[in-house]
Amino acid sequence: MGARLRSVLVLDAAAAFEPECQSTRRRSHRTPAADAQHEPRHAPNLTLIVTFYRHPDHWKIRKTRQHHAMDSNLTGPSSPRTQAWTDSFQDYNLTVMQDVELSKFPRALLTFSSVITILILIVGVLGNSLTIWALLRCPRVRNVAAVFIISLCVADLLFCVLVLPFSASRFLHGTWVHGMTMCVLFPFMRYGNIGVSLLSIAMITINRYVMIAHHNMYARVYRKHWIACMIAFCWIFSYGMQMPTLLGVWGSFGYDNKLGTCSILEDAQGRSSKAALFIIAFVVPCLVIILCYTRIFLVVHESEQRMRQHASTSRAPGGNEKENKRKRNEWRITKMVLAIFLSFLVCYLPITIVKIADKHANWPGLHVLGYLLLYLSACINPLIYVIMNKQYRQAYKTVLRCQRGRLLSFTHGPDTSQQGGERKNTSCTALQTFPLTEMARAELQPNPDVAGVNSPESDGWQC
């Protein structure tokens, strides 16, 4: 009879129902509109499976009480009449389709996952918002790398606001209930924000590499207009790569029965952009980050050897104290960025491996754990900042205590000054005032072509 195309309708009966005995032969000679009008409805939530055949004049409707989701793959070409019926039912079918993969998961596991997702959402929104506000209010931590960290925090914040609520709803309801339009936008926003996050981490790593391995080039490379171009590239490239898929030119966004979520599907020609996006937007940035850190470790190791040799032959190390302090600060922030990258890998790789190794969800718990780890990447970075960087902790305290984020004093810790016979304590956010000569003012004036308050020589994330 040719290839068949199936579409599922779920109808809720609201009135009295006619007897079930109807002749299939009589229904087969009625038109689609007449049959849909006279077709009896027997019980609430009765599933009508409309089966179309290749020949436009041969069609029939058969009823079943099964509530299985239908296979969305087309096994052959369809007529214009068939395509019109399919398009008209597509949006409605998606909102009521039983989630194939989530139906395999225990109800308790899905409820637990929805609660964890909501907690991650709350922590991610608060943590990333606090980080953005702290970096904007505390000028002494506002340098070149901080600009990329703000971009990273914005991407994570958008991920929490635009993606996690729908993920929590999917776990809670056991199915996708937000319609076709959101099913297209959901993976578009999810993959876009993940791409921006990874590219921002790559940009921070390159910044650390230039700072440590090619310090003389730093001021020429990281000027304000170039930094703006780098930030714009992260966002435009991440979302621009998905435009062919969004337009249906190279794959399409939609509901994937195998994965039980809205994702990238193959188009009519069997093409999908998923593999290309994974290689270009994930593998390539990871390789760049790994190469940069390999070079950074080599440079730091050679520098430490030279410092030890110099210390053994020199009795007056005080002249290099400022340079050594700068390098220690650079190394601390470099290790923090490495921790961010490793946490991203730990959060992202499990769901990728599980989807490849267990395509039919034979191990539901692994799939749920993989999704939760992926969501965790949106809220873990602020925790890394607090744990690994003293200056960030001080910036957070400044914001939480509602202190003014003025230009910080150039001495660490609390400073005391005598004023009016009283001893006045000034925190790290207080502006230390004392007369400066013209030469001193010229020394302290930052380079206007370099982003941030600190010059490259003092790029130490000091608060």
Can you describe this structure in just a few lines?
This protein has 463 residues and is mainly α. 57% of the residues lie in helices and 9% in strands.
Describe the structure.
This protein has 463 residues and is mainly α. The protein has 2 domains: 5-96, no CATH class; 102-400, Rhopdopsin 7-helix transmembrane proteins. 57% of the residues lie in helices and 9% in strands. It has 16 helices and 7 strands. It has helices at 24-28, 32-38, 80-96, 107-137, 144-162, 164-173, 179-213, 218-221, 224-240, 243-246, 274-313, 321-357, 364-376, 380-388, 390-400, 438-444; strands spanning 5-11, 46-52, 59-64, 252-256, 261-265, 415-419, 422-426. The strands form 3 sheets. A 3-stranded antiparallel beta sheet has the order 1-2-3. It has a two-stranded antiparallel ribbon with strand order 4-5. Helix 4 packs parallel to helix 13, helix 12 packs antiparallel against helix 13 and helix 14 (380-388) crosses helix 15 (390-400). The longest helix is centred in the middle third of the chain and has 40 residues, at 274-313.
Present the secondary structure layout:
Blueprint: E1 5-11, H1 24-28, H2 32-38, E2 46-52, E3 59-64, H3 80-96, H4 107-137, H5 144-162, H6 164-173, H7 179-213, H8 218-221, H9 224-240, H10 243-246, E4 252-256, E5 261-265, H11 274-313, H12 321-357, H13 364-376, H14 380-388, H15 390-400, E6 415-419, E7 422-426, H16 438-444
Antiparallel strand pairs: 1-2, 2-3, 4-5, 6-7
